[in-house]
Amino acid sequence: MKKNKSVWHKRSLYAALFGALAVVSAGAHADQFGIQIAGGEADHDVRKADLGVVWDPNWTWWEIGGFHFTVVGEAHVAYWDIRESQASHPNIWEFGLTPMFRFIKSSGWFRPYVEAGVGVRLLSHVRETPDRTFSSAFQFADVVGVGAQFGAHQNYQAGFRFQHLSNAGIEQPNPGINFSQIYLQYNF
Asked: Nearest 5°: CA angle at 185, between 181 and 188?
């Protein structure tokens, strides 16, 4: 059993490393980058601060009624502050990559959008409290949200996201955690 866990951890690490290298190498030809900051809360008195780097390759498809579909790549580093009195690890770090698909208004100073994505995350610790443990450091992140891009040069974004982290049943227990987040972004 320990050997299988070790293999999963190695594969997860290699997948995260490969994804990071793919984002960085693809970003060399990117049209636009952004820096994103987010804050949020989860059940069980967990607060989260998140820093993200966003790559927008400016891909568009399916123009529908003044809106179109696009995708952006995001890399995140987040810090969890677990405020429960019996926290085993009151400070957990989260690292991850997520492609976010958006349906966004095609023109104008203010461009609202809806978004969704599924990414991967790696946690620094799996035990929140003696009663709450994630069985693996490798997690999936399901994200849905709404937001808007605005400004004369579309340099600003703001939005709200709901994020669910769990290992999709790869190992048990799989309690998962749900975050509600507000984010701000500046595009270069």
From this structure: 160
